[in-house]
């Protein structure tokens, strides 16, 4: 019975944790893009994003991580023999990387707060895909365990990374075209008003 409770709350914890990680870096992207806005919008947006980032990190993302880790320890205490399994060692490596990513987001958040972040929105979009890749690996390892078809898995993950990179590039081009179109429309409206 304890195993089922630990497993249920482990799943709840990592869903909350990942939801927070996905949205947190999205807020970083908006925060960086706020620098392109004129004043006073720039200051208002940056202050609002900073508040949202702190609340998300401290109230949702970090507690989600702590619940995930605590319940994982509970799961391991009910089945200590699983610690001898190779798939779990690999999964724990990816979980450790994910915890590092979590703390790196805290560092980025602090840099954004004092305008010292050197990441642009395009780089942050790429960074935002890292937890997706880690989630894929972690879930595949948890489901397949030692029977994970590694040849297929490697190709699926590689294809996913390529697809994410292409999507980010296409989205950047679309945003650039939309911005150029809007600028042209505004210039046309301004010219019509002068005429």
From TrEMBL:
EC main group: oxidoreductase
Pathway: Porphyrin-containing compound metabolism; protoporphyrin-IX biosynthesis; protoporphyrin-IX from protoporphyrinogen-IX: step 1/1
Protein's UniProt keywords contain DNA-binding: no
Family, similarity comment: Belongs to the HemJ family.
Ranges annotated as spanning the membrane: 6-25, 56-76, 88-105, 126-146, 152-172
Functional description taken from the UniProt entry: Catalyzes the oxidation of protoporphyrinogen IX to protoporphyrin IX.
InterPro entries the UniProt entry points to: HemJ-like
Location within or outside the cell: Cell membrane
Binding of heme, residues: 10, 91
Originating organism: Calothrix parietina FACHB-288
Cofactor(s) of this protein: heme b
Alphabetized UniProt keyword annotations: Cell membrane, Heme, Iron, Membrane, Metal-binding, Oxidoreductase, Transmembrane, Transmembrane helix
Enzyme Commission code(s) on record: 1.3.99.-
Topology relative to the membrane: Multi-pass membrane protein
SUBUNIT field: Homodimer.
Protein name per Swiss-Prot or TrEMBL: Protoporphyrinogen IX oxidase
């Amino acid at each position: 019975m304890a195993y089922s409770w630990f497993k249920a709350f482990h799943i709840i914890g990592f869903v909350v944790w990942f939801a927070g990680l996905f949205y947190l870096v999205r807020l970083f992207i908006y925060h960086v893009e706020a620098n392109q806005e004129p004043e006073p919008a720039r200051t208002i947006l940056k202050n609002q994003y900073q508040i949202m980032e702190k609340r998300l990190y401290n109230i949702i993302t970090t507690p989600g991580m702590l619940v995930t880790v605590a319940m994982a320890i509970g799961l391991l205490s009910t089945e200590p023999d699983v610690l001898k399994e190779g798939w779990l060692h690999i999964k724990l490596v990816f979980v450790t990387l994910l915890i590092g990513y979590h703390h790196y987001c805290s560092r980025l958040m602090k840099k954004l707060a004092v305008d010292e972040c050197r990441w642009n929105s395009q780089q942050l979009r790429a960074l935002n895909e890292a937890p997706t890749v880690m989630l894929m690996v972690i879930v595949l390892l948890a489901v397949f365990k030692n029977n994970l078809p590694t040849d297929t898995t490697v190709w699926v993950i590689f294809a996913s990374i390529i697809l994410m990179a292409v999507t980010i590039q296409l989205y950047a081009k679309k945003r650039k075209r939309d911005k150029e179109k809007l600028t042209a429309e505004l210039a046309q409206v301004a010219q019509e008003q002068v005429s």
